[in-house]
Amino acid sequence: MTGAELETEVQNIVGRESDTVLITDARCTRWLNQAQRMIAEKCPGVHELGFKNTTSVDFTQSLSFGLAEFTVGDDTASNHVCHVFGVHYLDGNESRELVFTHTDQFDSIRSDPTHSDYGFDKPFRWTRRGNNIEILPLSACAYCDKDMRLDGDFYPREFTTNDSSESSLNDADEGLILFATAKAWKAIGDEVRAQRTMREFTNPDPRGGEDFGWLEDYKRQNDELHEWDGGWYSDEVV
Length: 238
Fold this sequence. Notes:
The chain folds into two domains: 3-45 and 169-223, no CATH class; 47-154, no CATH class. The N and C termini lie far apart (45 Å). It is α+β, with helices and mostly antiparallel strands. The protein has helices at residues 3-13, 25-42, 103-109, 173-188, 191-202, 214-223; strands spanning 50-53, 64-66, 81-90, 96-97, 99-100, 125-129, 132-136, 147-154. Helix 4 (173-188) packs antiparallel against helix 5.
């Protein structure tokens, strides 16, 4: 469904067709975009949001690299990095994957990484601090201008009001409608319907059955690795 069709669906469900006062097109669009961001954040590794960037950023004698410098997705003005799964130093057979280090340990290793006492070397560690990647140690000149590979996923393109395009997420219309409808019921003042609809979006079956909330079910679908053989054979292939 297009963004415009999703807006209309939400308005129809709550009985506010073509509402220009409370459940407006603009508010429905905002709720749909909130749902998209939540899905991206709560379901890391959604297949259609994955990326591998090897061209946007080179290593330099810098500590920090902004995630906004990396081009991701089809709409580079609208797509932004959500999760980062790995950072690599690329230089032929000298390439290496940098070791992720939690910020606490990262800071305990070198409280002031840019100080001249530490010198420079081939990058070995990385951490994420806000919307930036930090590396240790800072690159020596011999290791500068080498490509930085960043693996991760990105936020879906945001809808504009009455958008004629579909969501970047595959098969997510039901979830987007549930979330936006819950927000609409809350705006109307029907707290019971708002909570019930939001539970359908987020929560597992309270009776302990096999049914999960939509968000959990969507996450499980993307967690399945049908291609992997468990390492029985492929890890030995050279």
